[in-house]
Amino acid sequence: MTTHKSTVFLIDDDVAVQHGVTALLTAADHSVAVFNSAEDFLSKLTTLDTVNTAMLLDVCMPGIQGLELQEQLYNDGVEIPVIVMTGHGDVPMAVRAMQNGAVDFLEKPFTVEEVVTALDRAFGLSRPIVKLTRSASPELTENYESLSPRENEVLRGIVDGGTSKEIARTLDVSPRTIEVHRHNVMSKMNAKSIAELVRMAVALGVGD
Fold first, then answer.
1. From edge to edge, which strands make up the β-sheet containing 82-86?
2. What angle do CA 65, 99, 138 make, to 5 degrees?
């Protein structure tokens, strides 16, 4: 657990998300600065203290999108660890964000434990953010190699953001068959959630 007071920049245009996530973060002893859009954040950036901060960034917003803001900050040398927030349909965007240096991604709705763990990872960074950083452990590589060819195809479909029905149409099998393969993929990869599975896929370079 993070024991020091830290500031989280929360960027999301959904008022309900702003209120709910702020409550979670406050309970976890983080201070929170809320911004309604990427433009709102950029307009105030020069007045912000970015030491000991992290960013929770929604990928889909009106105006400047989350990934555009992330890239702009990276190119400008603003090294704020970024955690992207996404709905299931935005998984490919979350993958791209992580390839571009995001620390983690959270699939809405997420739990207190998930957001605190992600922030602990973000605040624990001791090196500059690097695009497309992979860190596949031998165990992760071994788990990946245990997948059958069909399970590998299903994993790639999940990383592409496909639902079971969409993956089933692509592979010309039944949705029920995809559900079985999906369960096997999660089990073999020791993934407890789609977000965790996608983090593993990014570390392995799946879907590049």
1. 30-35, 6-11, 53-58, 82-86, 104-107
2. 150
pLDDT digits (tens, 9 = 90+) for 140-179: 999 999 999 999 999 999 888 888 899 999 999 999 999 9
Residues 6+ apart with CB under 8 A from 198: 91, 94, 95, 98, 105, 158, 159
Taking a C-beta distance cutoff of 8 angstroms, is the pair 29, 5 a contact? yes
DSSP bridge pairs for 82: 55
At residue 102, what is the residue type?
Answer: A
C-alpha–C-alpha distance, residues 94 and 191, integer Å? 17
pTM of the shown model:
0.74
**Distance between CA atoms of 103 and 70, rounded to whole angstroms?**
11
- Delineate the domains of the chain, giving CATH numbers in brackets: 6-123 (3.40.50.2300), 138-204 (1.10.10.10)
